[in-house]
Design goal:
Layout lengths: L1 H32 L15 H29 L8 E8 L2 E6 L10 E5 L21 E4 L3 E8 L4 E5 L4 E5 L5 E6 L4 E7 L11 E7 L1 H11 L2
Parallel strand pairs: 1-5, 4-10
Antiparallel strand pairs: 1-2, 2-3, 5-8, 6-7, 6-9, 9-10
Helix pairs in contact: 1-2
Length: about 220
């Protein structure tokens, strides 16, 4: 979905460049040819039927070409994965995140649940990013359809990872869900995007995408 939005942006920008060049050409041409020194007595032309028809039809066609993929993307963004490989839950707190892998919970005592706090600046290791690193990352398998349930335990939060193209509000007493497909392995950073209090800027999000084998090994080592 995010890739589709970026491609649509690039396509629309192409049309914008064409329109900009055309309008500038018309404007400069009008200033050059109709300067008061060249045409001290202007022609009394009030209407040009042909050009008025053209500048009504062509923008309408351009808007239609833009609208068709836009509606398709809007419809696709509202769809959720029917049968995801994994369902996870993100709970916002003041000011940290709690992650729960519901598929692996066999009981209340045996569950894969952990809190994710930002690493203080004094504890950062070489190569770690300030204000973005956490002690426990959300680990997911790459190239798998994932469902993330998002909620809050206190105030409004927002779970947002721009590089994955996802942003979902965490509302107390409400479950929102988003679909994620991480196309390649790596580490993706995000932050809470809702002003949730004094430490709003200090509850980052780190998603680590692993291969399916490495992900299974991680689950085995962290499950209980």
């Amino acid at each position: 979905m995010m890739q589709g939005i970026m491609d649509l942006h690039h396509d629309i920008f192409f049309f914008l460049i064409l329109i900009l060049v055309f309008v500038l050409w018309i404007l400069v041409g009008a200033l050059w040819h109709f300067h008061y020194k060249k045409n001290p007595i202007p022609q009394r032309i009030v209407h040009g039927t042909t050009i008025e028809i053209l500048w009504t039809i062509f923008p309408s066609l351009i808007l239609m070409f833009i609208a068709i993929p836009s509606f398709a993307l809007l419809y696709a963004m509202d769809e959720v994965v029917v049968d995801p490989a994994i369902t996870m839950k993100a709970i916002g707190h003041q000011w940290y995140w709690t992650y729960e892998y519901s598929d692996y919970n066999s009981s209340d005592e045996e569950s894969l649940t952990f809190d994710s706090y930002m690493i203080p600046e004094d504890d950062l290791e070489l190569g770690q990013l300030r204000l973005l690193e956490v002690d426990n990352r959300l680990v997911v398998p790459a190239n798998s359809h994932l469902r993330l349930l998002v909620t809050s335990a206190d105030v409004l939060h927002s779970w947002a990872v721009p590089s994955l193209g996802v942003k979902c509000d965490a509302v107390p007493g409400r479950l929102n869900q988003i679909s994620i497909l991480v196309q390649r392995e790596g580490v993706y950073y995000g932050q809470c995007s809702e002003i949730c209090g004094t430490n709003h800027a200090f509850m980052p999000i780190v998603v680590e995408a692993l291969s399916l084998k490495d992900y299974c090994d991680w689950v085995d080592s962290h499950q209980f």
